[in-house]
Design goal:
Helix content is about 45%, strand content about 15%. The protein is of the alpha+beta class and about 280 residues long. It has two domains: about 70 residues, Arc Repressor Mutant, subunit A (Orthogonal Bundle); about 190 residues, GAF domain (Beta-Lactamase), CATH 3.30.450.40. Strands 5-4-3-8-7-6 form a six-stranded antiparallel β-sheet. The chain has a two-stranded antiparallel sheet with strand order 1-2. It starts with 13 loop residues before the first helix and ends in a 13-residue tail after the last helix.
Length: about 280
Amino acid sequence: MFDDADSDAVVGDAQPRQHSNLSSVRNAARLLKEFSRGTRELGVTEVARRLGIGKSTAHRLLATLADERLLEQDPHTGAYRLGLAMYELGASVSLHTDLHHACTPVIEQLAAATRETIQIAVLDGREVVYVERRDSPQALRIFGRIGHRNDAYCTSTGKLLLAFLPPEQLEPLLDGWVLTPKTEHTITSIPRLRRELELVRQRGWAENLNEVELGVASVAAPIRNGLGDVVAAVSVAGPLQRLTPDSLKRLARPTIEAGLAISRRLGYRDGLTGRSAT
């Protein structure tokens, strides 16, 4: 994939408008940081004073952030406080930090034992994002990078994470989802995907055989947080020459054990299952 280069040229009044937009972003960032100083709520007048901006500008800024759920307004006092979206973002940052520390020794051991590529993925809508990776030492191996995204319906990590979503989160994703064939083996119908997800829930692990790319196979297992919710997936991936269907079944057990080891490091206790496991 190639990124389109941004043009450095400035045409007409684009530069002043860009400067204005950047000032708005800077003011929004400064405003949100004010809540890190121990302030629970802020009103329009106080925001204007602290940021050195007019009250009308402060009002527009607060209203925009409230529209995006970064702030919420108290209906009685009219003051603003941090919104749910900010807590969701904070939880996401905490998860990724905790996940990195929890998985590092485990995936290094799994990579050494299997000599295959090990990946940790989280779900972002209808895609999986690979947040940790250890490459296989073998000459013939799959290539990828941390931060890479892939469609969830055709990857072992994606199917695993979809399978353990609560129904109220899974159904909106399945509704209207067009499953584009990547290969002749890709699941392309929602009913078939539903059957696959049910199988994954029953056996506790997911596989991918030629579904996202010919010659590539993988097996994935769940990673749970302290509440028992499935928050990530660990996978072993490699070329089909080595990861045959029989090999994947043999690798399922160490992959599940690695997921359980990471889960325990995140505070999970065996036998505890949360909403994502129902």
